[in-house]
């Protein structure tokens, strides 16, 4: 099973009507054309974007700090696909919502894409931002690339094995 992951889209209905949005959404369709499910880790800001994403695959989502107009959206999710527990929060600091800790935690907020294993033994995935990527100041004494690119994540679950990667576009 493949799951498309995105976060921090920060889209408004006003900026979703033009040709640049159509190009952007076509790119997402291409990136997610084989996914079975999509998870959005908050700061969606537009229900219409969720409707558009649902044309690609079923969507699970949570509320981010910029989704204040949608107080009924959940702040956390605990999902289970192929026997793998997946927790979704907007800020990594909210990992405490889960007891026990899921095998995979998906989060956003920082706009910085990363995949790592936590000290608690879970897999942490931040897909970055699809519209407003941010740089890290330094990575192991190397300057971050100068061209910032939007990004998404792909989480693959296969017979108990978990793998993930970040795709910039």
TrEMBL record:
User: Residue limits of the Calcineurin-like phosphoesterase domain?
Assistant: 1-139
InterPro entries of this UniProt entry? Calcineurin-like_PHP_lpxH, Metallo-depent_PP-like, Phosphodiesterase_MJ0936/Vps29
Report the EC code(s) recorded for this entry. 3.1.4.-
Q: What is this protein called?
A: Phosphoesterase
Domain of life where this protein originates: Archaea
Cofactor(s) named in the record: a divalent metal cation
Protein's UniProt keywords contain Metal-binding: yes
Alphabetized, the UniProt keywords read: Metal-binding
Family membership, please give it: Belongs to the metallophosphoesterase superfamily. YfcE family.
Keyword RNA-binding, does the record have it?
A: no
Q: What NCBIfam families does the database record attribute to this sequence? A: yfcE (TIGR00040)
Organism, per UniProt? Answer: Candidatus Lokiarchaeum ossiferum
């Amino acid at each position: 099973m493949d799951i498309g992951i995105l976060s921090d889209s920060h889209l408004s209905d006003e900026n979703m009507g033009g040709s640049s949005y159509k190009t952007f959404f076509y790119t997402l369709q291409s990136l997610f054309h084989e996914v079975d499910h999509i998870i959005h880790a908050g700061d969606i800001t537009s229900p219409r974007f969720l409707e558009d994403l649902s044309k690609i695959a079923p969507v699970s989502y949570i509320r981010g700090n910029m989704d204040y107009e949608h107080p009924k959206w959940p702040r956390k999710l605990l999902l289970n696909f192929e026997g793998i527990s997946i927790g979704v929060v907007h800020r990594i600091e909210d990992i405490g919502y889960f007891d026990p800790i899921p095998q995979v935690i998906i989060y956003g907020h920082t706009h910085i894409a990363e995949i790592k294993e936590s000290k608690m033994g879970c897999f942490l995935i931040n897909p970055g931002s699809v519209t407003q990527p941010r740089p890290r100041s330094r990575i192991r004494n190397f300057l971050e690339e100068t061209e910032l690119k939007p990004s998404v994540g792909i989480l693959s679950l296969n017979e108990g094995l978990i793998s993930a990667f970040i795709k910039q576009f």
